[in-house]
Structure formats: structure tokens, C-alpha cells
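[audit] Reproducing an earlier prediction to check determinism. Same input, same settings, fresh worker. If the C-alpha cells differ from the archived copy the diff job will pick it up downstream; this log only records the rerun itself.
[audit] input (75 residues):
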Amino acid sequence: MNVDLSKHETAFLLQARETQRLTLRVFNHMVSGVQQYQAALLEHLKQQMCSLVERHPEDLDELRSRASGGFSPVC
């Protein structure tokens, strides 16, 4: 599953701006906040993946397969 975060971000922000009648200043502040959140989330996910690879180097092929083909449920 390939998720386009930019598309979802844009839709969310535009809907919020229209439904809440946000000023341009508030809207720009929200855009900045969402971008910062996405950057922090991406960094967190990278750290989690690196940690997982370090803990399970013997499973690297399986991890690559899951990462490229989507994640199957673990539970």
C-alpha cells in the first residue's frame, strides 16, 4: 500500500480551512505544524526501522520483503 501523505495533508488542511473559516495566517500556521509533524513521524519511523534491523539482522530479507510489498498483520 503506497500512501500519498501530501495528498491527505492537502485535503485535510483545505477542508479544515473551509469548514472552520480559518484566516490565512492560521492556515499557514497549521500547514507548518502538519509538515513538522510529518517530518518528526518520518524520523521516528526511520529510527524504528534501523533499530529493528539492528536487532534482527538475520531477518533482513524478510524485512525487505515486508517493506517493499506492504506489511502483513503481525497480530
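[audit] rerun output stored. Observation attached for the diff report: Residues 27 and 33 are 10 Å apart (CA to CA).
[audit] end
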